[in-house]
Amino acid sequence: MIRINDIIEKVQTYLSPEEVEMIEKAYIYSASVHQGQVRLSGEPYLTHPMEVAGILTDMRMDAATIISGLLHDTIEDTLTTAQQLEQEFGKDVAFLVSGLTKLSRLSFSSQEERQSENLRKMILAMSSDIRILLIRLADRLHNMRTLQYHPKEKRISIARETLDIYAPLANRLGIYNIRMELEDLAFQYIAPEAYRELTSKIAKSKEAREKYTEEVKNIISKNMENFPVSCKVEGRAKHLYSIYKKMHEQHLNFDEVYDLIAFRIVLDTDSDKTCYEVLSIIHALWKPVPGRFKDYIAMPKANHYQSLHTTVIGPYGERVEIQIRTKSMHEWAEKGIAAHWRYKEGKVFWDDEEDQIKKLREVLEIQQEVKNPKEFMSDLKLALFPEEVYVFTPHGDVKSFPKGATPIDFAYSIHTDIGHQCIGAKVNRNIVPLRYKLQNGDRVEIITQAGHHPSKDWLKYVVTTRAITKIRNWINLEEKKNSLALGKELLEKEFKRHNLRFSHMVKSDEIRKALDHMSFNQLDDLIYQVGLGHISPKRVVNYFIEGEENEIKEPLLEKIKKSKRAAPSMGIAFVGVEDMEDVMVNFAKCCNPIPGDAISGYVSRGRGVIIHTVNCPYVKKMDQERIVRVQWNAQEEHTYPVRIKVVCDDVKGVLTEVSSVISSFDVNISYAQVETENMIATCTFVIDVNHLPQLNQILSAIKQLRFVRSVEWLHHF
Q1: Among 628, 652, 511, 649, which Cα is nearest to 559's?
Q2: Beta strand pairing status for 347-350 and 341-344?
Q3: Are 121 and 103 in contact (CB under 8 A)?
Q4: What is the pLDDT of residues 538-554, one digit of tens each?
Q5: Active site (annotated) includes residue 548
Q6: Exposed e or buried b per residue across 422-458, where buried means at least 16 C-beta atoms within 10 angstroms of its C-beta
Q7: I need a labelling partner for 141 at 20 to 30 A (CA). Which of 82, 457, 573, 694 fits?
Q8: Could you tell me the CATH superfamily of domain 198-338?
C-alpha cells in the first residue's frame, strides 16, 4: 500500500510547498470522510484514493489533479458536497470531482443506459478539462488491479468495459503504460484460459528470450558507437494482450509469433532527420522485411504518436521489430498527453498537442447527438478503436481515418454539406464506388451535386463516428418530416369526414386543452404521433366533437377552496394564498418528492393539488396556468414513503442487517422484499422518512455495509 509520505516525497520535487501542504490537507480530509468504509478486499477505503493519487503523482500531474484523486469519491460515497469541496480546496478541485461523480442517484431503465450516461457525462466534462479523464483512467487502473475481489460476472463486465472504452481512451491520449496494463489486466478476466496458457508459454521461453534480447541490444549498441548522437537501446517483451490479439487476428500459434520482443532506439536529440539516418544503419546491418516499415514521424498516429517502425531478419533468422525515435517522441509515446501539458490561469494548455486534443474532443463530443444508449456505446467504441489509414486531399493535406473508411467518410470529414451532397469520388484521379475502402497514400477528391441527399444504405459501409451520426440525424429528420406530412393529411381527411376543417380547429382554444389532455407540448408532436400510427386520427377528432368537461370558470384555487375536502395538507404551504388548510394534497408517484426537494403544485381535475419536484419531466408538459407556487411547511412534520433498492452479495442475514441500519434512524419500514439471482441479492424497501437529509444519511450508512454493492433511491413507485 502506498503511503502519504511516498506521495509527498515525489511531489516535493516539482510542486511548491503551499501545493504540497494542500495535498496533505486533502489526505486528512479524505481519511476523515471515508472513515469506517472498507473495500471488498477488507482494506480501508482510503487505500483506493491513495493509490489513485499515487498513479497521478507518477504522471507528474499538478496539485489540483492529485488532490482530486484523493477526493474523487467523496461526493459519490460520503455526505460531502461540491460546495464544501470548493470552500476547502477551491473551484478547480470542486469542478474536477463533480465531473468525476457518477450518476448514481438517478434511475435508469437498464445497465447499458446507466453506463452510456456515465460515459456521456465524463466525456462532456472532459471537453472542459482533460484532467478529468486522466483521473478517471487512474481510478480505473487501480480498480482493475483489485478486480479479483468482485463476483465473477461483475469482473467480466468491468473488464469488458475497460477493454472496450478505457484502454482505447488511454491509447487515444498516447498513455502507453496505462493502456498496456489495462489491456493485460482485462485480458486475464475476459479470457482466463488463454491468459494462463500464454503466460505459461512465455515463462518457459523467458531465459532464452532474455539471452536473445541482450545479444541484439549489444549488436545495436556496438554499431551505434561511432554515431555522432548518443542513444539508449531498450528491448522488452510485448505485453500479453497484444500477443494474444495478434495470434487471434492472424490465426497464429504461439510458436508462429516471431516478433515477441520490441527493440527501441531512443536518440538524445530532437532532430527527425537523425531517426532516418539510424534507420539506414539498421537496414545495412539486417535485411528488412518487405511491407513491415511504418513511418509514424512523417504521418503521426491519431494520438500524436511518432516513431519509425521496421521489422528485420535478425540473428539466427528471427524477426525483430525495431522502433527508432527521439527523446521527446519517446516521452510522448510513454506518457502521452500527461507529459506535454501545463496549467496556467485556470485553463489547460498544450503546445504542439493542442490540435490533437481538439481532434479527440471532436470525436467524443459528436456522441452528444446520439440519444440511444446502444448506438452511443457502439459509436463510441468505433471512435476509440481506429486502425488508421492516411490519405491526401487534392491540395496535398494529410487526413487520417479508421481502417475501412470510404470516400463518404472523407466527404463528411470536410463538411456536413459535402457529405450530404456527395454523389461520387475520384481516388488517384480514377472514379471509384462510394463503398471503396481507402488505402494508405490515396489522393481523394469528392464529387458533389446540389440538392443530393444521403442514402440509408450509406450506413452499411461508413465507419467514422461523424459520418454515421450525420447520416443518421438527416434520416431521422427526414422521417419526421414525412411522418408530419402524413399525420397532417390523415387528420385533415378525418376532420373533413365530420364537416370540420382541421386548419380552423388548430387555431381554436380547444386545441390547447386537447394537447394538455393528451400530454403533448406542441401541435407538431401530436401530428407526428398520428403520422407514426401511434395515435388514430379518429381519437383526435372525437375529442373535438365530444368536447371536454366544462372548464373551470372560477379561479382554480378558489374552486378548490370551495370544495372543502377534508384532507390533510401533508406539510405543504401555498405561497401567497391564505385559507388553504383544507385543500386536498397528493404527491406525484412519478417523482415522489420529499422535504428538501424543490417542488411545485399542479391543480388537477378532481384530485386537488398534485405535488411534483420542479425538475419532474411531466411538469413541463402540463398546462402552466394550472401550476401554483408551493413550499414545504417547516412548522409541520410528516413522514413520506420512499422506495429504495439495495444490491448486495447474497450472504446470510442480508435483510436483517440492512433493516437494522434503517431502523437505527428511527424510521419505519412499511415494505421489504428480497430477490436473489446468481449470488446477488436485490432488496427493495419502502421506508417512511421526514426529509431529504435523513434519507441521504440512511443511504450513506447502508453503503458502508461490507456486502453492499449499490444503493439507489427509486423516485417512482
Answers
A1: 628
A2: antiparallel
A3: yes
A4: 878 776 664 433 333 34
A5: no
A6: beebebeeeebebebbbeeebebbbebeeeeebeeeb
A7: 82
A8: Beta Polymerase, domain 2 (3.30.460.10)
Cell of 97: 470531482
- Note if 666 is an active site residue: no
Candidate list 51, 62, 73, 77, residue with the active-site label: 77
Give per-residue pLDDT as tens, 88-124: 999 989 988 887 775 344 344 455 555 555 655 555 5
609-613 and 599-603: which strand pairing? antiparallel
Q: Which three cell numbers stand for residue 338?
A: 500527461
Q: Is 612 left (phi over 0), alpha (psi -120 to 50) or beta?
A: beta
Domain 4-190 adopts which CATH fold?
Answer: Hypothetical protein af1432 (1.10.3210)
Strand 261-267 to 319-326 pairing:
parallel
Residue 682 · residue 674 · CB < 8 Å: yes
CA atoms within 13 A on the CB side of 613: 15
Cβ within 8 Å of residue 345, ≥6 positions away: none
**pTM of the predicted protein model:** 0.52
Cβ contacts of 468 within 8 Å, gap of 6 or more: 379, 382, 459, 462
The domain made up of 640-714 is a member of CATH 3.30.70.260: yes
Q: Do 138 and 68 contact (CB within 8 A), yes or no?
A: no
HSE-CB of 318 using CA atoms within 13 angstroms: 18
Specify the 3-state DSSP secondary structure of 671. strand
Amino acid, res. 422:
C
Q: What's the gap between Cα 186 and its chain centre?
A: 18
Catalytic residue of the set 76, 112, 234, 650: 76
Q: Give the residue extent of every domain in the chain.
A: 4-190, 198-338, 473-546, 556-632, 640-714
- Distance from C-alpha of 192 to C-alpha of 244, rounded to nearest angstrom: 12
